[in-house]
């Protein structure tokens, strides 16, 4: 029998998750598996004041840089405990949630620890703290994939969303990552990501033409989640094909394009673990309203994942997903 953490065991957990999700689409509740991926929050604060991010909105309003308690970074000791509890089951570990991951100086060590357990690792960053030395540390740690968020090619467009940021730092960060990758022989994938926004729509083709010259391996252009969208939003693209929202003539308001269904793949396959060890249903629980429990104080991951709060939340998804506020603005 394969040991916990063995690829065969993780594959078996993935198969069980797929079956469970398929049953949930038919309205049948059957959860016997454990998460196949987790998102870890290395830090709960950020340097920027992005208008559609709860941390950024709080900072822009003059409050602390976090919407939840004091500024905190995840310690290596806490991460070690989390890793020991999730690594037997998950195949992927994402290092991002609310704050900026690179504000945790121990991030490369965490990535290295996860890599040694055979996990695929991903970091998403605004790159404002990513210098040549950090690029080298990430490559040496064995990071699988890094996403650099750069929502504008020029400073004029970039700072409309990434308030307080410097677009040239982003570009230089990508160059440093590319150089570190070449120098170390790393297999790290460098992904440049840009949101479809009205403020940068004149630059979309520039991104497509220039991202490889900058040193990125891939470019992802994605639609933006907006909080204030019912009566339009200055960030909403002119072409509705690139927005998550459409005009509803009956309601005389913008509404999400997606049809909300009573099932959710993300909820059946993964979870978020915040900087304090709280287990959350997904990255849309930005206010940490639906905590399932705490992995640092619980007996095991299973005790939280199969706990009463998690079970009740998932069962509610199968019948009344539209009653859960965080779900109504989700594309999943």
Describe the structure.
With 332 residues, the protein is an alpha/beta fold. The chain has 11 helices and 11 strands. A 9-stranded mixed β-sheet has the order 6-5-4-3-2-1-9-10-11.
Mean pLDDT score? 92
Helix content: 25-40%
Low-confidence stretches: none
Please write the string of helix (H) and strand (E) elements: HEHHEHEHEHHEHEEEHEEEHH
Q: Globular, elongated, flat, extended or rod-shaped: what is the shape?
A: globular
Task: Classify the beta-strand content into a percent band.
Answer: 15-25%
Radius of gyration: 20 Å
- The N- and C-terminal alpha carbons lie at a distance of 35 Å
Please count the beta strands (DSSP E, at least 2 residues each): 11
Assign the structural class, choosing from mainly alpha, mainly beta, alpha/beta, alpha+beta, or little secondary structure: alpha/beta
Number of helices: 11
Strand order of the largest sheet: 6-5-4-3-2-1-9-10-11
Topology of this structure?
Elements: H1 7-25, E1 37-40, H2 54-60, H3 76-86, E2 92-95, H4 107-116, E3 120-125, H5 132-141, E4 145-149, H6 155-158, H7 167-184, E5 189-196, H8 204-214, E6 218-223, E7 245-248, E8 253-256, H9 265-269, E9 270-273, E10 278-280, E11 293-294, H10 301-305, H11 308-320
Condensed summary:
This protein has about 325 residues and is of the alpha/beta class. About 35% of the residues lie in helices and about 15% in strands. It is built from 11 helices and 11 strands.
Q: What tags apply to this protein structure?
A:
332 residues; alpha/beta; nine-stranded mixed beta sheet; 11 helices; 11 strands
